[in-house]
Design goal:
The chain is mostly helical and 415 residues long. Helix content is 67%, strand content 3%. It has one domain. The mean pLDDT is 82. It is a multi-pass membrane protein.
């Protein structure tokens, strides 16, 4: 017998049903917790905790340096500001990581177009800081390039993954044209460091997409020629390279950073007991790694480096078992962007690389740059989400390379 349907009479209320939205949210959280890479998330949170401590150590130096007679900044001014930005960044990171992969890809394509348009506006209406015009002010000040890089990398991964469906598509040329256009806009700011890093990340993605070895050699030669051209015709690049090759002076920022880094020895001089940091121009951003060395010791510097390596290796280990080219390219590109910026900053502090004005990701103080980095990590976590109960067959990179090489030789034979 069929169940009777309850129809309320006039004036009566129907049966009370419990709302399903909270239950759905709990279910989504359980799925997210099951699929998220918890080890990667733990390494990220540990790095952010080290960053909080480091900004607290560096804040007095920068606050006193930037104080004026009219405005005296409290010693912990940058520390409390960093806490606020970190809380906002954490919400952005976790919120982004909960998005399904397909909406993430579509969002990145749309945002890439918006941020590219914003980057075009920078030379005309941008805000100039320290001789570089990289910021836009729309209520808050932000760098369009910082948000463009991660979403553009995901979009380029999508373009390069077309190769799986149609090997004849010129995906290398299409993505290279986009990278070249973005690079020109970055050099116009000028932002040489970001341009070099962006090209390097694209090169990594192109190699993973199965570019034949002979073409890799051609791209490497083209990159060397571009660097030579930048040195000859781009004043910003020539000045930085000449300053690096000429050796630091006693008052050079990089030399001060290196001496600050080694001043505390292995165990450090103690929290808030460092003195060399007071002379650094950007103790809370570009040279925070040196502050860590002086006050917390070289041992903690080693821990920071190991955390970055752990993040990179964890991503690569997860990708070994991945069978979708888009995920491999997007995750590899994002972690290359994150790790590349980290190690460029560290090498600058060690006097092993020309100064680039890059912050130490998730450790340095930052406003909108912290949000952009947390957004980058959120994209990485979302793209790498995986059902642990589904088995995957790893993508055959070697077979793909051999097939491409075979197709190239067939074309040559036909000619």
């Amino acid at each position: 017998m069929s169940a009777e349907i309850y129809i309320p009479r006039s004036g009566e209320e129907g049966p009370v049903r419990s709302p399903r939205l909270p239950r759905d949210r709990k279910r989504e959280l359980r799925i997210w917790w099951r699929e998220i890479d918890r080890w990667l998330l733990a390494f990220i949170l540990m790095l952010m905790a080290v960053g909080t401590l480091s900004v607290a150590a560096a804040s007095p130096a920068s606050a006193r340096r930037l104080s004026t007679e009219a405005v005296q900044l409290p010693d912990l001014y940058f520390f409390w500001a960093h806490i606020r930005w970190q809380m906002l960044g954490l919400m952005v990171m976790l919120g982004t990581s909960m998005l399904p992969r397909e909406p993430v890809r579509r969002m990145c394509i749309v945002l890439a177009g918006i941020m590219l348009f914003a980057l075009l506006l920078v030379p005309f209406v941008g805000t100039e800081v320290n001789g570089a015009k990289r910021w836009l002010t729309v209520g808050i000040q932000f760098q369009p390039s910082e948000f463009l890089k991660p979403v553009c990398i995901v979009s380029l991964a999508w373009v390069l993954s077309w190769k799986v469906r149609d090997p004849e598509l010129p995906v290398i040329a299409i993505s290279g044209a986009v990278v070249g256009f973005v690079t020109l806009l970055l050099l116009a700011q000028p932002n040489l460091g970001a341009a070099i890093l962006f090209i390097a990340v694209w090169f990594v993605m192109v190699m993973l997409a199965g570019l034949p070895l002979q073409r890799i050699g051609m791209l490497g030669g083209a990159g060397a020629a571009l660097m030579l051209g930048a040195y000859l015709f781009y004043d910003n690049a020539r000045n930085r390279i000449d300053s690096f090759l000429g050796g630091p002076s006693a008052y050079d920022h990089v030399d001060l950073a290196n001496r600050t880094l080694t001043a505390g020895g292995w165990t450090g001089s103690g929290f808030w007991l460092g003195t060399n940091k007071m002379r650094l121009p950007e103790a809370h951003t570009d040279y925070i790694f040196s502050v860590i060395g002086e006050e917390l010791g070289l041992i903690v510097c080693v821990v920071v480096v190991l955390l970055y390596l752990a993040i990179i290796l964890r991503v690569l280990i997860r990708l070994v078992e991945e069978d979708r080219l888009f995920i491999i390219l997007a995750a590899s590109g994002l972690v290359a962007l994150f790790g590349g910026q980290a190690f460029i900053n560290i090498l600058v502090n060690l006097q092993l690389f020309p100064s680039k004005g890059m912050t130490l990701p998730l450790v340095s103080y930052g406003g909108s740059s912290t949000i952009a980095l947390c957004f980058t990590i959120g994209l990485l976590l979302a793209i790498m989400r995986r059902n642990p109960f589904l088995a995957r067959e790893p993508l055959d990179f070697r077979g793909a390379l051999d097939r491409d090489a075979g197709r190239d030789s067939d074309r040559e034979d036909r000619r």
